[in-house]
Amino acid sequence: MSSILNFDQMFTHLRQLGRIVRIAVVDGIDASTIEALQRALNGGFAKVLFVGKCPDLEEHPTLGLHPDRVVHVPERQGLNAAETAVALIREGEADFLMKGLIHTSELLRAVLHKEHGLLPQGEVLTHIAVSQTQTHGKLLFFTDSAVLPEPNEAQRERQIDYAVAVTKAFGIPTPRIALTHFTEEVSEKFPLTLHYRQLAERARRGEWGNVIVDGPLDVRTSVDPVALAVKGITSPIEGRADVLIFPNLEAGNTFYKTLSFFGSAPIAGILCGAKCPVVVNSRGDDASSKFYSLAFAATVVAQS
Amino acid sequence: MSSILNFDQMFTHLRQLGRIVRIAVVDGIDASTIEALQRALNGGFAKVLFVGKCPDLEEHPTLGLHPDRVVHVPERQGLNAAETAVALIREGEADFLMKGLIHTSELLRAVLHKEHGLLPQGEVLTHIAVSQTQTHGKLLFFTDSAVLPEPNEAQRERQIDYAVAVTKAFGIPTPRIALTHFTEEVSEKFPLTLHYRQLAERARRGEWGNVIVDGPLDVRTSVDPVALAVKGITSPIEGRADVLIFPNLEAGNTFYKTLSFFGSAPIAGILCGAKCPVVVNSRGDDASSKFYSLAFAATVVAQS
């Protein structure tokens, strides 16, 4: 496949794959979730399993236009809607999870349940987002802007693993992963930068296959070849990062909010690390951003 | 005075004040610094003291058009150029410092010198920047994107002090200062948020005068009334922050780099805390951004 460079190409890719991705949506009765799912149905790549609460199909007649692709799954005895949806994933009856009108914490409790949940041993639940900006000539992925306050070394390595898997699903032949910090300096004062250097070295030795990892780089030298040259720095990323790994949640969240508001960039996001992607947009997100996120999740699972 | 809402109004304000601000520039021989100073001279609000190395006036004849406003001050005996410039500030012969073709660390060594430097006891050297974005209807100040890795409580309080002084110099009658974090939640898990709440309470009791301080807020709820409403949060900032205080340098630097690159926003910056502002743009900055920064410094000192 050729690289997916923007969201339109992502939608086209999903249509052309011809694969139907099964979405288990938990209490999907809020307007923006319904509209996002409707767009996925119209896009021809989705089957929707409304787990728990289900919208009134008389009020949403267009949902009924795809009777074989819209199913209501009531809560199972003794389980709530989130637990039921997780069971569907475990049984191979659905491909990924989407949050409707429930609290994220309730959904995550089911996902993270030690015995009946979806997180394999050694994996880490972390958020990865993808943005379409006016400045960068391709999609820009970044992690973590929503979940892990201060990733430790093992968690950071998982973030790289997931970023590799996700960018490969987008057809990026040699993903460029930038480990960001506020300076390019490697120093014992900032132990993070020593780990960054190790990770870059391990990537050079081929640990992640055909993947470039480098850092510390700041956000600008990660994505701007001119800034890189002006600073007199050389990096195999060459100012053309596909992925930014952030040192902590303050930085990742600041990037997300600044890019969306001041950069007017649409952003999609999923949780990685569990057996399947989990779409957990916040209440405030509009239908478009929920649709982008579920298309993001669909692209990841369609490739796996 | 009325509020300065953008950089053009800042330049107009400086012209109208009719005050000549004396800039001590240390080794100001690089092209972008010379051009920035030239623009300040043309703007009619500056006198330039070239301390240490001085550009060849035959090569830059337009500098010579203001013979009474361009002075060369050689290094004093036993002092380097940075130390000489600091001495000029201490003696009241110059109003602020600007870095030319020397390392920032060398300039800061002179500024921070315990005996002969410029940092009063109890003050903190911290960076404050101001950006002109396409989205926010006014200037947006932020701190710290360049100096303090992890401000402690005392340092954060100084950041508020300086932000108040700076925004007052820009004629903002009631500055709105947002204390940013990745969530609006106050929690013992994040001690920073407890300090934020204390600071908001102290501001309500009038500690900083006619100033609104609130937090924790994320970057978006600080500047976007719609996001604030959608999240169901109330804040006296009302999504109209004049100042963002960042929890750490990773977040502050990420904001700076993201805003400048993805938001295409011009940004000016100065160091605060010393007896005078210090302009320390990096080598890579172009003449415009150095000019914005020196105009920012001039606006601050012209008001004091």
Give structural notes.
Chain A is α/β, with parallel strands linked by helices. The first copy, chain A, is built from 10 helices and 11 strands. In chain A, strands 8-7-9-6-5-10 form a 6-stranded mixed sheet, with helices on both faces. A 5-stranded parallel sheet of chain A has the order 3-2-1-4-11. Chain A is globular. The relative contact order of chain A is 0.17. The model of chain A has no long low-confidence stretch (mean pLDDT 95). The interface between A and B is large, with 42 and 41 residues.
Mean pLDDT of chain A: 95
Q: In total, how many beta strands of chain A? A: 11
- β-strand percent of chain A reads 15-25%
Shape assignment of chain A: globular
